[in-house]
Design a protein that fits this description.
Keywords: Signal. It comes from Subsaximicrobium wynnwilliamsii. This is Lipocalin-like domain-containing protein. The chain has about 325 residues and is of the alpha+beta class. The chain has one domain. The chain is built from 7 helices and 11 strands. Strands 1, 2, 3, 4, 5, 6, 7, 8, 9, 10 and 11 form an 11-stranded mixed beta sheet that branches. A hairpin with a 2-residue loop joins strand 7 and strand 8. It starts with a strand and ends with a strand.
C-alpha cells in the first residue's frame, strides 16, 4: 500500500492498512552507527533497543540478537566511556554468544534502565525529549519484565510527556524535516532483528520530506518519495510479521496555512485543520491508530498510535 507524504503532512488522517499472508523467515544482521557529535547519544539509544530485543531471546534467534547486543554495548563503551564498569559487566555475562543461555529478562530490562537513565541524566536541550522517551520505554519494559513496585510507575508519571519546559522553542518560520514516526511498540520493518519504535529507522523512505513555514501564515509540505508496504505473516505465527518496503520517488507539494498559539500550531490543509506541538526544535503530531496491520480476513489486527516528528533545519 502507498503511503503519501501529503497524508503525513496532514497527520495521516487516513489509517495505514496492511494485508498479511504466510511466508518464511529471513536472516538478518545488526549494524550500529556512533559517528558524529551525537555519538554517545546514538550509542546509548542503540544499546537500549538491542537490550529490548535481547529480552525474550530464544534458541532460534539467540545467535543473532546476542551478537547485536554485544556490538551495541561495545560501541557505547567506545563512544561514551564506561567509568563505573557497568557496561563491561553486562558484556562479560554474554560470553561469545555461541551457546544459548536463557536470558534473565528482568536483569536485561534492569540493565536497559541503567543505560537510558545514564544517558538521560546528561541530556542537552537538543536531545532531551528523545532520551526522555527512551528512558520511559525502558521503565515501561521493566514493569513488564520485573513487575511494578510502585516506584517505577511513579518515575514514569514524573517524566510526564517528556516536554522540556526550560528549552526555548525554535521559530516556526523556516524548514522542518520529517525525522521520526514514533509508534507505541518497537517493530522490525526491515527484518534485521533490530526493532525500533521509530519506524523511519526501519525503512529508507521519506528521507527528505519537509514542512516549510513562510512568514504571514502560509506554507508548503514537500514530498520526494512514498512507500509501498507488503506485510506477510510468518509461518506458524499469529503475531509475528515480515515486511517488504518499496520506496518510490515522487515529487508532490501541498500548500497550507498555519496559525500559532504558544507551543501549539494549527495547519489548515484542504479546509481541514490539524494540530501540532512545538517542543524546542521538534514539531510533532499524534495520529491515533495511525498504523494498522491486519491479515487477509481481518481475524488478526495490530494497531499502533503514531507520532510524527519534524526537526527544525
Amino acid at each position: 500500500m502507498k503511503i503519501s507524504f501529503t497524508k503525513i503532512a496532514s497527520a495521516l488522517l487516513c489509517l495505514v492498512l496492511f494485508t498479511a499472508v504466510a511466508c518464511e523467515n529471513e536472516s538478518f544482521e545488526g549494524d550500529f552507527n556512533t559517528d558524529g557529535v551525537a555519538g554517545c547519544e546514538v550509542a546509548s539509544l542503540n544499546t537500549t533497543q538491542a537490550a529490548l530485543n535481547f529480552t525474550g531471546a530464544n534458541i532460534d534467534n539467540y545467535a543473532l540478537v546476542c551478537p547485536n547486543y554485544k556490538s551495541a554495548l561495545q560501541a557505547q563503551i567506545l563512544a561514551c566511556n564506561d567509568a563505573n564498569g557497568n557496561l563491561q559487566a553486562i558484556l562479560d555475562t554474554l560470553g561469545d554468544c555461541t551457546e544459548f543461555t536463557q536470558p534473565d529478562d528482568c536483569a536485561t530490562a534492569t540493565a536497559a534502565v541503567g543505560v537510558t537513565q545514564s544517558a538521560f541524566s546528561n541530556a542537552t536541550a537538543e536531545n532531551y525529549t528523545q532520551l526522555c522517551n527512551a528512558y520511559k520505554a525502558a521503565l515501561e519494559n521493566l514493569i513488564v519484565q520485573c513487575g511494578n513496585d510502585g516506584g517505577t510507575q511513579s518515575e514514569i508519571e514524573a517524566l510526564g510527556d517528556c516536554f522540556n519546559s526550560n528549552q526555548p522553542n525554535a521559530e516556526v518560520e523556516g524548514t522542518w524535516k520529517l525525522t521520526a514516526w514514533m509508534g507505541e511498540n518497537p517493530i522490525d520493518l526491515n527484518n534485521d532483528a533490530q526493532e525500533s519504535t521509530n519506524f523511519l529507522d526501519e525503512i529508507d523512505c521519506y528521507t527528505d520530506e519537509t514542512l516549510v513555514f513562510n512568514a504571514g501564515g502560509t506554507g508548503v509540505s514537500m514530498s520526494t518519495s512514498y512507500a509501498n508496504f507488503d506485510v506477510q505473516l510468518e509461518t506458524d505465527s499469529t503475531n509475528t510479521y515480515d515486511y517488504t518496503v518499496d520506496c518510490i520517488a515522487e515529487v508532490e507539494n501541498t500548500d497550507f496555512t498555519w496559525t500559532q498559539s504558544g507551543n501549539s500550531l494549527t495547519l489548515i490543509i484542504a479546509e481541514q485543520s490539524y494540530n501540532y506541538t512545538i517542543d524546542g526544535n521538534s514539531l510533532s503530531t499524534l495520529v491515533p491508530n495511525g498504523f494498522t496491520v491486519s491479515n487477509a480476513d481481518a481475524t488478526i489486527t495490530v494497531t499502533e498510535d503514531l507520532t510524527f516528528v519534524f526537526t527544525k533545519q
